[in-house]
Amino acid sequence: MRTIDWIDGAVELVDQTVLPDELVLLRIGTVDGLVDAVRRLAVRGAPALGVAGALGTALAVRDEPDPLAAAARLRAARPTAVNLARGVDEALACLDGGFEAVLGRALRIRDDDIAACLAMGRRGADLVRELTGRDRPRVMTVCNTGGLAAVEYGTALGVVRTLHERGQLARALALETRPLLQGTRLTAWELERMGAPYRLVADSAGPFLLARGHADAVLIGADRIAADGDTANKIGSYALALGARRAGVPFVVVAPESTVDPATPTGAAIEIEERCGEEVLGVRGVRLAPEGARALNPAFDVTPHDLITAIVTERRVIRPERGERP
Ligand code: MRU
Q: Model pTM greater than 0.70?
């Protein structure tokens, strides 16, 4: 199953707001419909957002009176994942060839993502076994970086999947990932479907479980990797990196080359999406905090490169803590 695709002249995507209760495909034929889906996280995860940006640009070129303005709205729908902007820009670069050329570019981005995820799965699984010295490592992960965050297969969870398919996964620990619970709702759904051994854990348990030796490696995805290797990813990643360093556990980022952003010099320059406080004040629309309570809701954090043991892409392994740069 593909998370996002172009079917009969429209974008089709799995609605991630209703999983795991329902598996619903949304058919979206307008740029503003896609902007709304991106903002609501019906489609989410950096690689999937890249494909959404490119396919949405094809919709803009085909249907919109002002395609550049429509593409700009899509590009700005979420600021942190560089893949969204890159998907729009790469598709727009084919504008002179008209709709067919733009769509062709978008479909290549889709296909490249599928191939990249498979390559990262293999390279990442080999690397985790090498770094941990374990034939069957136990790994910890945060958010959802599986097939739902890409077109198929995924990045960090794609490594978990490869380990599992090879019979080399002892256990995965998946953080729940408050406030929107991508771990509880989406990663657990994927792990169930693949039949992998796993436990869900509260976000705040992550660093302590590392200290007590419950995982041999931490695997995360990325929304943007700066030129110095600093990595933006789901909020909670930085706390895991600190806990991993203290516990002497390798901390590995798994992301395609398209998530590396040479134009962003360091993590300090990465714009962090601030989402609505209501997401923190309750759960799935049910208010838990008292009347008058207000929240801060950064959707991402930045892990400094010196806490990152390795970055795995479809082409290479970079070792930021050793001074290597992407
Ligand atoms: O807010 P989300 O759910 O889009 O955040 C997703 C993440 O932080 C992922 O870890 C990242 O995009 C990599 S997905 C392979």
A: yes
